Amino acid sequence: MKLLGVVGTTGLFLLLGSIAPAAALQEQQEQPAKPPKHEQQAKPEKQQEQAKGRQEQHQPKDESAKQEQQRQARKHQDEQRQQNDRPAKQEQQAKGQQEQEQKQRQSQDKSSKREQEQAKAQQDQQRQQRDNGTRLEQQQQVKEQQDRKRQQQDESARQEPQRTQQRDRSQEVSLPARQRQHGQENEQRGTWQERRAHSWESEHRDWQQRGGYIGYRIPDDRFRGHFGRDHEFRVYSRPVLVVGGYPRFQYGGYWFSLIDPWPEYWSDDWYDNDNVYVDYSEDGYYLYNRRHPSDRIAVTVYVN
Q1: Nearest-CA neighbor of 278 among 224, 232, 225?
Q2: Between 177-194 and 61-174, two packed helices, what is the crossing angle to 10 degrees?
Q3: Are residues 166 and 172 in contact, defined by beta-carbon separation less than 8 angstroms?
Q4: Domain residue limits at 296
Q5: Within a domain: 63
Q6: By three-state DSSP, how is residue 1 classified?
Q7: Is residue 256 pLDDT above 80, yes or no?
Q8: Which of 58, 165, 227, 290 is the right S-S partner for 275, CB 3.0 to 4.6 Å?
Q9: 276-281 and 284-289: which strand pairing?
């Protein structure tokens, strides 16, 4: 009996032990589960985020349309700005093109000006060459004329003594000696007076004014021995002739013809009494009078 009682008591405890946990488990299932403490604290923040997400998801359509309108407005403003800027850009481009065209025209003008200057320089050079050629040709012609004239003068000077001798012989045959001498002196004096100047300053010309001396030139050694300031003489102490209306006297082995008139303020008989000399000065031969050292008369030299 005692054994039965112990077994029954043990079975009762086991039965109660199984029933109690089952009842507790059922009670737990029936009651809602309580979240942990930290989960309870985070719940409001999470709910706010979820509410915000839902708010964003449920954003009104008019807000999206407003943003689209703003975007379109900005796009339109950009296009309008581009359109407004386009004339300025076009004007700037046109201005740049005009400047470039102006530079091109200036460059073309400079090039054309250089070409014109080069052409002008070439024409001037050609004209100068032609002028030089013409000048040389003229100088050659003048030189040839001077040579011919000098040859004629030399030939005339060589023949003049013969003609003079023949004329003298004829005069000797026709006239007595004294009459012949008196007639020659009168003729010579008349010729000297005819060669007297009325205004010597305006009537006389030096060899440079006459175009240069073209007559016979005395050799230097001969000139130094008989001519110059140290070799003076008187004209009438030498043979005198009248050739072509010009008085001509002989001195130092040469004949000298007075091309210039003699000054009106010289004495009437200067050719008898004044000491003179022949000298070469710069461009030709001249006759100088000791009484009037500043005056000089152009003369031409002829050989015997």
Answers
A1: 232
A2: 160
A3: no
A4: 154-303
A5: no
A6: coil
A7: yes
A8: 290
A9: antiparallel
271-290 per-residue burial string, b: 16 or more CB within 10 A, e: under 16: beebebbbebeeebbbbbbe
Measure the CA–CA gap between 246 and 253, rounded to whole angstroms.
19
| Residue 285 lies inside a defined structural domain of this protein | yes
Q: How many domains does the chain have?
A: 1
* Nearest partner of 253 among 276, 272, 278, judged by Cα: 278
Distance CA 162, CA 164 (A): 5
Tell me the three-class secondary structure of 176-228, residue by residue: CHHHHHHHHHHHHHHHHHHCECCCHHHHCCCCCCCCCCCCCCCCHHHHHHHCC
Q: How far apart are CA 284 and CA 301, in angstroms?
A: 10
- State the sign of the Cα–Cα–Cα–Cα dihedral 179, 182, 187, 188: positive
| pLDDT 10s digits, 165-180 | 555 444 444 434 443 4
**Higher per-residue pLDDT: 287 or 76:** 287
**Nearest Cα to 249, choosing from 287, 279, 194?**
287
- Provide the 3-class DSSP secondary structure of residue 120: helix
Could you tell me the two tokens for 219?
């050799």
> 234: which DSSP letter?
-
Q: For 6-10, 94-98, 215-219, which range has the lowest pLDDT when averaged over its residues? A: 6-10
Pairing of strands 284-289, 246-251: unpaired
- Please tell me what DSSP assigns to residue 232: -
pTM here? 0.41
- Domain membership of residue 240 (yes or no) is yes
Q: Residue type at 49?
A: E
